[in-house]
Batch of 2 targets.
Target 1
Amino acid sequence: MGTYFNQKDLQTLRELRATLLGMEQRPDGEAAQRYWASRRTLELYDQVFAARIGWKWAAVLDEVEQRGGLPAPRTVLDWGTGTGVAARTVLRRIAASGLPDQVVLLDRDETAREFAAASLRAEFPGLAVETTAEVPERAFDLVLASHVLDELEDDDLPPLIATAAAADQVLWVEPGSMVTSRRLGAQRAVLLETHDVVAPCPHRGACGVLAEGHERDWCHLFARPPAEVHTTGEWSEIHRELRIDLRSLPYSFLALRRAPVEHPGAGRLLGRPRFQKGRVLLDLCDAEGAETRPMLQRTDKALFKALKDCAGEVVLMERDGDRLTRRP
Ligand SMILES: C[S@@+](CC[C@H](N)C(=O)[O-])C[C@H]1O[C@@H](n2cnc3c(N)ncnc32)[C@H](O)[C@@H]1O
C-alpha cells in the first residue's frame, strides 16, 4: 500500500505506463490500444504523466520565447488532447497577453475530451472551449500536438499533417526516444514545405541527424524537472513504485511558423554533453549538419563546468576553427 497512491492506483499507473511505452514498438498496421478505462485513469495520468509532459512543454515554451516567441493565437487546436496538458500549459504561458477566442480539443476518446475541456474551463473561466472527435476542416492559428505520434494508425497521420500545414504556427512535443524523435524528424521534412523552424533547429536545412551515417543518432533534449520531484513524498513514491527516473525528462519537439524565421547562425547542443578526462563531447546541430565535437577543459574551464548541469538550457555554440565558444 502506498502512502499517497493506493495499490489499485499504482497498478493503473504501471499498466498505463507499459501501454504508452509499448506504442512506439507497435507493429505496422496493428490498431493502437484504447486505454482511457475510466475517469480515474485520466485523473492519475494527469497527476503523474501529464505533469511530466507539462515540464517538457515549459522547456519548449522557454526556448520558443528565446527565439522571439510566437504571435498570440486567436484560435488553437490541441490534436490528441488527452487530459489537455498541452493546451493548459500553453494558455498559462500566454494568458497575460490575452487568451485565444477559441480553443478546440480533439481526441478520439469522449471521456478524455470531457476531462480536458473541464480542466481548461476550470482554470480559464469564460474561455470558449469546444471538443471534437473529427478533424476540423478550418485552419487554426496554432496547432498543438503532444505525445500522439506513436499512437496514430495508418489513416491518422495525413489529417494531422494537413491540419498542421494549414496552421500559422505549430508546436509539437514528443518523447525523446530514438524511434519517436526520428519519426518526428521525418514530419519536420514534410512541414518544411509550408513552414520555417523556430526551434529546436538553428536552421531550416535538412535534419542533420537523419542524414546518411547518422542512423544511430537522434535529436533529443532534456528538460529540468522542478525541485518538487526531489522533495515531495508523492514524487518519491512514484519514483519508487513505478521505477521512473524523475531527474531525466527527455523530449523531442518542433516549433514551426509559416512566416520566415531569422536563424541564429550557431550550433545547438543536442542530448547531454558527454564528459571524458579533460574534455567533453558535444553533439552539435547547425546548418552544415549534426556533428560530435570535442571541447577541451583547459580551453574554457568556466564553460566546461557550466555544461555539467545544463539540462533545460538552450546551449548555442559558435565554431572558430577547432575552438568552440558559447553564444551568450
Ligand atoms: C498519450 S496521450 C497524450 C495526451 C496529451 N496530448 C498529452 O501530451 O498528455 C494520446 C492521446 O491521443 C489520442 N489519440 C490517439 N490517436 C488519435 C486520433 N487518431 N485522433 C484523435 N485522438 C487520438 C488518445 O485518445 C490520447 O488521448
Note: Residues 210 and 269 are 16 Å apart (CA to CA).
Target 2
Amino acid sequence: MQTFLTHEKQSQREFSAYIKRTEKAIRKAFKKSFGAAYSGLTPQKLAAAIKTDTILPEKGMGFDKVLVLAEKTVLPNLLCTPSSSYMAHLHGPSLLETIAAELVISTFNQSMDSWDQSPVATEIEVQVIRALCDLYGYNKTSDGVFTSGGSQSNQTAIILARDWFCNEILHWDVKKYGLPPQYTKLRMYTSEISHFSMEKSAHILGLGYESVVKVPVDAKKKMDTVLLKKLVEQDIKAGNIPFLVVGTVGTTDFGSIDDLNELYEIARNNNMWLHADAAYGSGVIMSRKYRELITGIELCDSITLDFHKMFLMPISCSAVLVKDGKDFEALTVHADYLNRTEDEEDGYTNLVDKSIQTTRRFDALKVWTAFQVRGKDGWSELIETSMENARYFYNQLKDDSNFEVVTEPEISSVVFRFCDGNKNTDEINKKVRRRLIHEYGTIIGQTVSDGKVCLKFTLLNPLITHKKLDELKSLITAISKTAAEE
Ligand SMILES: Cc1ncc(COP(=O)(O)O)c(C=O)c1O
C-alpha cells in the first residue's frame, strides 16, 4: 500500500485508482438519492446504522474495504447539498471547478503561514486579495487575508477595531499591556438580529456580552439608525466608550441589509470603526442588476466575505478585508522558526503576519479558479438566479391567505409561516419541517420572528426552479392542513 502521491510510477497508479474508486462511489450515491436532499433516517436510526465495534482495528482493512463500508453507511446518508430539496441554511453545494481545486489543495497540502510552506500559493492569495479589494471598492492601502469562515473574519475585524481604537483614541497599547483599565466600558453596536459571532467574539476578546449593544431593527429587519444614534449618545453620557459599529449585509435569517451610508456617518462622527459583516451578502456584488443593494460597503473599515455561502464554494472559504492594511499589525508576531523579518525585508511574504491562524488552507485557489472559470457574466447569472427565485417565491406567498411572509427578500431568503388562526400554529409549522425531513427527504429552515415560529427557504442553489418552489408550497400547505387537524 502506497503512502503518498510521489513521482514514482506505482504511487501515481495507486493515486489514480483511489480517486477513480472514490469518484465512482460518490456518483453512485448521488444517483441513488433520486434528487432527495436526505435519506430521511432519524438520529436514532442513523446512529444505529453507523455503529461499529471499533474504528481502530488491530490490522488495517485497506482502502477498498473501508470505501465499501462508507458506501453502505456514510455516503447514502450524507446531505446532498446540490439537491433542490435542500434550502435550510446559508450552506450550499460546491461548484464543480472548486471541487477540482479542492483536490489540488488537499493533494499538495500547502500551508499559508510562511512563504517556504506555500511559495506560489502565497503569491496567488496576495493576488486574489488584491482583486477582492478592488471588487469591493477599496483603494491600494487596503489588504486582507483568507480565514476559516465568517465567524473568524468577524472576530479578526473586531480585534483590529479594538486595537485601533485603544491605540489611536485611548493611547493604550493593547498588544503590550492587554485590555485598557476602562475596558468594561467599551461598547460595540450591532443589530438585534446580527450573527452570534458578535457575542462570541466579545467574550473571547475579554470584553464580555455586556459590551455588545443590540440595536432594534425596523419592519424591514434593518438596524434602526435613529435608535443607534440615540444609544451611542446615551452611552457616551453614561461614561461608556463606543468603539465599533457592525452593519450586517445580509442577516442570517432574512437577508436584510443595514444602511451602510447611515452607519458610516454615525461611526465617523463618533470616532468608531465600521465593520460590514457581509458573510451572506458579499455575493450580491456579482449581480449586475442588484449590486447597488450593497453600496456603501467600500466606506467600511473592514468587510467579512464568505465564499462558502452565496459563492457556492466548498467549506472553508472566507476572507476579511481591511481598508488600511497597516491595521493587520495587531496580529503580527515574529518567530525565528517561521516568519523572520530578514526574509520579509527581502520580499518573502509570510501571510501568518495577518492571521489569527498559523497553519492555514490554500482556500484562495478556489476563488482564483471559479472567478476565472465563470467570469463576470457567469457569476452575475448564478447570483441573480437565486435572488430572482426568492422574489418569485415571495410573490406566490404574499397572495396566498394560508401564509404570512415576514419581509420582502433583499437577497435570497424568504421567511414565512403557515397560518390558519389556530393557536397551535407554531406547532404546525414545526411539524411541517420535521415531516419534510423524514418523510420527503427535504430540508428547509426554521426560525423565530417576533416570537412566532416561521419556516425559511434559503435559496442559494441556482438549480432550484419556479416549478420546484410551487410544488413545495403545495406540499407545505397540504402537510400544514393535515397537521392542523391532528
Ligand atoms: C451574517 C453572518 N455572519 C457570519 C456568519 C458566520 O459564518 P461562518 O459560518 O462561515 O463562520 C454567518 C453564518 O451563517 C452569517 O449568517
Note: Residues 10-80 form one domain.
